[in-house]
């Protein structure tokens, strides 16, 4: 992971990606290194066990928090996403060493069992909407402390958040979003996606053809 992190820092993040407005987004589409990270057999095997052989990646993001980086409030991803039906599995993989001090992701086990209303977020946090605090049991939160390369899986409804980064160390994680091919993206050209966005099949086949797809980047990239 040290070698991979170095390449991410020198070859990936400093160069423009498929969304010219955000070099942290969707780099699995233009860098084989990132594609191969999100298509690791350790990840795909677990995802296949949960939802079957056919898996399409529709998004990825380097969640990078420099020292002082903002709190990400409690939320369920499905609240923000244009996918139908709302069924998604996410992977969050540590690129840096991720501890409570540099703002690891925190989750509430079991919170995926109900849809939680979202309300306008407090000032100073990273998102515009957050889960209604009346539905968040902070005492049940679990810190996802991870060594570089370790990852956890969660679905579109799991409540999760991360505190402000109060340490002097960066915290970088790579999240990737996987759907079975019967899940449709409602607008692939609009935020949170971008013009000419495409999905990549990482396991099995796209037997439905509902979304625009592309090939993985070549092995030299
Ligand atoms: O990286 C974080 O702190 C939050 C990540 C997140 O919200 C996600 O991966 O859905």
TrEMBL record:
- Matches recorded under Pfam families: PhyH (PF05721)
Give this protein's Gene Ontology molecular function annotations. 2-oxoglutarate-dependent dioxygenase activity; iron ion binding
Chain residue ranges for the region called Disordered: 1-22
Which InterPro entries does this UniProt record tie to the protein?
Phytyl_CoA_dOase-like (IPR008775)
Which superkingdom?
Bacteria
Q: Compositional bias (Basic and acidic residues) spans?
A: 1-10
Q: What is this protein called?
A: Chlorinating enzyme
**What is the source species?**
Actinopolymorpha singaporensis
């Amino acid at each position: 992971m040290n070698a991979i992190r170095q390449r991410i820092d020198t070859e990936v993040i400093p160069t423009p990606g498929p969304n010219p407005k955000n070099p942290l987004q969707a780099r699995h589409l233009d860098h084989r290194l990132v594609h191969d990270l999100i298509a690791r057999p350790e990840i795909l095997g677990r995802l296949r066990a949960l939802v079957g052989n056919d898996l399409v990646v529709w998004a990825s993001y380097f969640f990078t928090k420099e020292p002082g980086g903002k709190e990400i409030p409690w939320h369920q991803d499905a609240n923000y996403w244009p996918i139908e039906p709302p069924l998604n599995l996410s992977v969050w993989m540590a690129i840096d060493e991720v501890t409570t001090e540099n703002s690891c992701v925190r989750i509430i086990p079991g919170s995926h069992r109900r849809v939680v209303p979202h309300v306008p977020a407090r000032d100073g946090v990273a998102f515009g909407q957050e889960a209604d605090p009346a539905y968040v049991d902070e005492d049940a939160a679990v810190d996802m402390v991870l060594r570089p390369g370790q990852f956890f899986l969660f679905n579109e409804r799991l409540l999760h958040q991360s505190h402000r980064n109060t340490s002097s160390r960066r915290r970088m994680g790579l999240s990737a979003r996987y759907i079975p091919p019967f899940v449709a993206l409602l607008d692939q050209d609009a935020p949170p996606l971008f013009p000419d966005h495409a999905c990549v099949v990482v396991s099995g086949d796209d037997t439905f053809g509902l979304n625009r797809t592309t090939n993985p980047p070549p092995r030299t990239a």
